[in-house]
Amino acid sequence: MTAAAAGRTRARRGDGDLLRGELLRAAEELLVEAGDSSGITLRAVAKRARVTTPSVYLHFTDKAALVDAVCLSVWHKLGRRMDEAAADAPDPFDGLRRRGMAYVRFGLDHPVHYRVLMMQPPPPAATGGAAAVAARDCFAHMLDAVAACVRVGVFRGEPEPLALSLWAAVHGVISLLISKPNFPWPDDVDGFVDDCVRMAGMGAAVVSRVPAGEGRPDARGLVCQLDTLVAGLHHPPHDHPQHGEGRRAVTDRQGEPA
């Protein structure tokens, strides 16, 4: 009997789920300590959990399965955090901003898990696994929020390409903050993230109104049009009937069925 096995109380019959949880906790500790999956081996996990290596094989077929399970064990929290962040949003556009902020904060709160699932190339010939599940979940959350904005007229066009663009934007923010921790980022990281998310959302709202293939305005014309737009946004809606009508349209559409 190994020293690890001798130092651990034998699990009772039916305690398989308890042992699995202990193995996941041990593997997560090793993952966070190493900063990536290199610190995880079935032998190292067995030693940390004080069980025999064959006991690990009863729950995980190989290292990849164990790493997947560890990373996905926190991933289910993403959807809940995004929903909670947008629960009291006054409209879908602000809800999208809040969901984007929650998405970035989730990635920064779990940098190692995010790096493993979303920033590392998949193994050769891999078509599934935890990374694919995580990507589908992330895109699904973004697509739902964008589709709500399309329904009320904030964005125009098909939700899927808009959601892909916005997902790419928030993923880029997370990836840079995680991979370049020594870069002189602003002290107010949350403020920086909020600016990035708002830029992406406002940009999408404008660009989605420009038909594909149309020529872009020159810089001078663009400046004048944007200044006019921003000036209008700073005035109360009752000063601009067209803005009031637009706001009423958004409010009315929120009650329409999806």
Radius of gyration: 24 Å
CATH level 1 name of the largest domain: Mainly Alpha
Overall mean pLDDT = 83
Number of helices: 12
CATH homology superfamily name of the largest domain: Tetracycline Repressor, domain 2
Shape: elongated
Report the helical percentage.
55-70%
Could you give the count of β-strands? 0
CATH fold name of the largest domain:
Tetracycline Repressor, domain 2
Content of β-strand: under 5%
**Terminal-residue CA separation:** 62 Å
> How does CATH name the architecture of the largest domain?
Orthogonal Bundle
Q: Which spans of ≥5 residues are poorly predicted at pLDDT below 50?
A: 1-14, 239-251
The main pleated sheet reads as:
none
Q: N-to-C SSE series?
A: HHHHHHHHHHHH
Global structural class? mainly alpha
Oligomer: single chain
How many domains make up the coordinates? 2
Structure, explained:
This protein is mostly helical and 258 residues long. It has two domains: 1-60, Arc Repressor Mutant, subunit A (Orthogonal Bundle); 72-212, Tetracycline Repressor, domain 2 (Orthogonal Bundle). 69% of the residues lie in helices and 0% in strands. The chain is built from twelve helices and no strands. Helix 2 (16-34) crosses helix 3, helix 5 (63-86) runs parallel beside helix 8 and helix 9 packs antiparallel against helix 10 (189-207).
